[in-house]
Amino acid sequence: MNILLIAEHDNSALNPATLSAVSAATQIGGELTVLVAGADCQNVADEAAKVSGVSKVLLADNAAYAKGLAENLSALIAEVATGYSHIIAAASSTSKDTMPRVAALLDVGQLSEIIAVESADIFKRPIYAGNAIATVQSQDAVKVITVRTSAFDKAAAEGGCAGVETVANSRDSGTSNFVNEELVKSDRPELTAASVVISGGRGLGSAENFALLENVADKLGAAIGASRAAVDAGFVSNDLQVGQTGKIVAPELYIAVGISGAIQHLAGMKESKVIVAINKDEEAPIFQLADYGLVGDLFKVLPELEAKL
Amino acid sequence: MKLIVSVKRVIDYNIKVRVKADNTGVDLANVKMALNPFCEIAVEEAIRLKEAGVASEVVVVSIGPTAVQEQLRTALALGADRAIHVETDELPEPLNVAKLLAKVIEAEQPGLVILGKQSIDSDNNQVGQMLAALAGRPQGTFASEVKVEGGKVLVTREVDGGLRTLSLDLPAIVTTDLRLNEPRYAKLPDIMKAKRKPLDVKTPADLGVELKQHITQLKVETPAQREAGIKVDSVDALIDKLKNEAKVI
């Protein structure tokens, strides 16, 4: 087996999601090569070379790959893919955009968001918003895979000493151009990487009331999340959404505040280690999977929690 | 400009999914089926582009058994002009769907193709991207805003950490995210009118596509259920449990 893993990064640092994909790749077994495609991203390649289990790093440093445009990246990956049995990436908005394009260029199927490796060609993946788990087998010579990072432990970021080779390649389709981006700046930990997440739902009632959540989050060093209902109501921006159609998280501690527990939301957080639910409705479905439930008025509970933590 | 929208028939999103006792799949017998929610958003976006005068015709395509004609009629009732049904025995896997759609596009020559970003049954999130690759066209996936101007389409995409806007040459492939729009409901007179709108049936052979199996589903299981824990009666009790029992704070 010869695995090509596509690094997730922002041109300056390796995204920890990559380490979860490395774990999945290690379970498949074989030689592991990491492709770092970006612009001015030598640092990322150096970081990737240190990751435990990585035997080689390929660096494609070119302006065409700066913004992760799927047209350019997929053309690069499909070209580099020769000789590899698996092409694997952490499921992210970039890889979900790019990898199916790679699969089509190689005329193979794609296995999306695997949660377990059964063998080199058999994997488990959630379907129906996580309400069923399918065991699937690839019939293709090359397996294109994205990995649900919350399902795999992170590989050690240190301990490896792979060599870095340069890929001199510039594939610019010219048909897609980056215009601008609005990234949300935050001092809090990143939602999918945080060990504690506190999420608010429709029960918070307004954008201003999210401040109550933020105060508790500050005490716990937690990331803030939200249910789709809270996002749709305009309380917070959509990148905070936890759920099947938002972020999938699996922190050590997940605190759901004023969230009833729609299937949509549960699909995004039910793998959390410990779940706490705070809701005034004792019949709320969220209590059916919470380890600790507190029935009460969140406008009293949150300030008390903040004061006592 | 002609628009093509591809839609999928799936289990209604309000229905609780039951895995079959023999683990061969999910029980779809006598279950309410509907237009995939992301596809509904794609249809709505196309109709809005037509209402705004950007598009001249909206053609809706679905692939699968005869039953998918029900969803094509729904899309026609919502405002699509005509439909193409590519008839197959079962719902083919994403790469096959993309190959069939690529042939439809070759014949129809649309300026823009709009699809849902994923279906709520198989959750693959692949067809739009695969279609773009096969057609050799640019893609704007997970769109929350679509603007056609000056021979290009500006697509604002929902990405990790925020929003990103791309400018794509036409023809382009766009896949929809949830916040792109809020789909309308079909009115009764439009549902009646939709019955008389043209619906062509084609086979994969007509389109010159041979369906291949790339991925085999070995079994489908119900996920491990989480047991409900305990209720605590105060904030103090909660903090105590988290500190001393769960040891997570």
UniProtKB/TrEMBL annotation, chain A:
<feature type="binding site">
    <location>
        <begin position="241"/>
        <end position="245"/>
    </location>
    <ligand>
        <name>FAD</name>
    </ligand>
</feature>
<dbReference type="GO" id="GO:0050660">
    <property type="term" value="F:flavin adenine dinucleotide binding"/>
</dbReference>
<protein>
    <recommendedName>
        <fullName>Electron transfer flavoprotein subunit alpha</fullName>
    </recommendedName>
</protein>
<keyword id="KW-0274">FAD</keyword>
<comment type="function">
    <text>The electron transfer flavoprotein serves as a specific electron acceptor for other dehydrogenases. It transfers the electrons to the main respiratory chain via ETF-ubiquinone oxidoreductase (ETF dehydrogenase).</text>
</comment>
<dbReference type="InterPro" id="IPR014729">
    <property type="entry name" value="Rossmann-like_a/b/a_fold"/>
</dbReference>
<keyword id="KW-0249">Electron transport</keyword>
<feature type="binding site">
    <location>
        <begin position="258"/>
        <end position="265"/>
    </location>
    <ligand>
        <name>FAD</name>
    </ligand>
</feature>
<dbReference type="InterPro" id="IPR014731">
    <property type="entry name" value="ETF_asu_C"/>
</dbReference>
<feature type="domain" description="Electron transfer flavoprotein alpha/beta-subunit N-terminal">
    <location>
        <begin position="3"/>
        <end position="182"/>
    </location>
</feature>
<dbReference type="InterPro" id="IPR001308">
    <property type="entry name" value="ETF_a/FixB"/>
</dbReference>
<dbReference type="GO" id="GO:0009055">
    <property type="term" value="F:electron transfer activity"/>
</dbReference>
<feature type="binding site">
    <location>
        <position position="202"/>
    </location>
    <ligand>
        <name>FAD</name>
    </ligand>
</feature>
<dbReference type="InterPro" id="IPR029035">
    <property type="entry name" value="DHS-like_NAD/FAD-binding_dom"/>
</dbReference>
<feature type="binding site">
    <location>
        <begin position="227"/>
        <end position="228"/>
    </location>
    <ligand>
        <name>FAD</name>
    </ligand>
</feature>
<dbReference type="Pfam" id="PF01012">
    <property type="entry name" value="ETF"/>
</dbReference>
<dbReference type="GO" id="GO:0033539">
    <property type="term" value="P:fatty acid beta-oxidation using acyl-CoA dehydrogenase"/>
</dbReference>
<dbReference type="InterPro" id="IPR033947">
    <property type="entry name" value="ETF_alpha_N"/>
</dbReference>
<comment type="similarity">
    <text>Belongs to the ETF alpha-subunit/FixB family.</text>
</comment>
<dbReference type="InterPro" id="IPR018206">
    <property type="entry name" value="ETF_asu_C_CS"/>
</dbReference>
<dbReference type="InterPro" id="IPR014730">
    <property type="entry name" value="ETF_a/b_N"/>
</dbReference>
<dbReference type="Pfam" id="PF00766">
    <property type="entry name" value="ETF_alpha"/>
</dbReference>
From TrEMBL, chain B:
<dbReference type="GO" id="GO:0009055">
    <property type="term" value="F:electron transfer activity"/>
</dbReference>
<dbReference type="GO" id="GO:0046395">
    <property type="term" value="P:carboxylic acid catabolic process"/>
</dbReference>
<comment type="subunit">
    <text>Heterodimer of an alpha and a beta subunit.</text>
</comment>
<comment type="function">
    <text>The electron transfer flavoprotein serves as a specific electron acceptor for other dehydrogenases. It transfers the electrons to the main respiratory chain via ETF-ubiquinone oxidoreductase (ETF dehydrogenase).</text>
</comment>
<dbReference type="Pfam" id="PF01012">
    <property type="entry name" value="ETF"/>
</dbReference>
<protein>
    <recommendedName>
        <fullName>Electron transfer flavoprotein subunit beta</fullName>
    </recommendedName>
</protein>
<dbReference type="InterPro" id="IPR033948">
    <property type="entry name" value="ETF_beta_N"/>
</dbReference>
<dbReference type="InterPro" id="IPR014729">
    <property type="entry name" value="Rossmann-like_a/b/a_fold"/>
</dbReference>
<comment type="similarity">
    <text>Belongs to the ETF beta-subunit/FixA family.</text>
</comment>
<keyword id="KW-0249">Electron transport</keyword>
<keyword id="KW-0813">Transport</keyword>
<dbReference type="InterPro" id="IPR014730">
    <property type="entry name" value="ETF_a/b_N"/>
</dbReference>
<feature type="domain" description="Electron transfer flavoprotein alpha/beta-subunit N-terminal">
    <location>
        <begin position="23"/>
        <end position="211"/>
    </location>
</feature>
<dbReference type="InterPro" id="IPR012255">
    <property type="entry name" value="ETF_b"/>
</dbReference>
